[in-house]
Amino acid sequence: MRAIADRDVCEGHGICESIAPEVFQVDDDGEVSVLAQNPPESEVNAVRLAVDSCPVAALLIED
Predict the structure, then answer these.
(1) How far is CA 36 from CA 1, 3, 4, in A?
(2) Nearest to 16 by CA among 43, 62, 63, 41
(3) Measured distance CA(17)–CA(22) in Å, rounded
(4) Could you give the domains of the chain?
(5) What InterPro entries does the record tag this protein with (predicted)?
(6) DSSP letters of 3-17?
(7) Over 90: is that where the pLDDT of 58 sits?
(8) d(Cα 25, Cα 38) in Å, to the nearest integer?
(9) Is the pLDDT of residue 29 over 90?
(10) Which of 12, 29, 50, 54 has the least C-beta neighbours within 10 A?
């Protein structure tokens, strides 16, 4: 699994960071950064939930 973020689409809601803080972080500019592009197996469910919860669809998963 690979986590991908589209910083041009991100509006900085921070939902992803609250769900998967080991993988996503919203920076001072209000845009998401991916901390672990290939998250460990223990984070897979959280990453999927974060992607599904993004209100502007700024996150993707590539298998």
Answers:
(1) 11, 7, 10
(2) 43
(3) 8
(4) 2-62 (3.30.70.20)
(5) 3Fe4S_ferredoxin, Fe-S_cluster_ET
(6) EEE-TTT-----HHH
(7) yes
(8) 15
(9) no
(10) 29
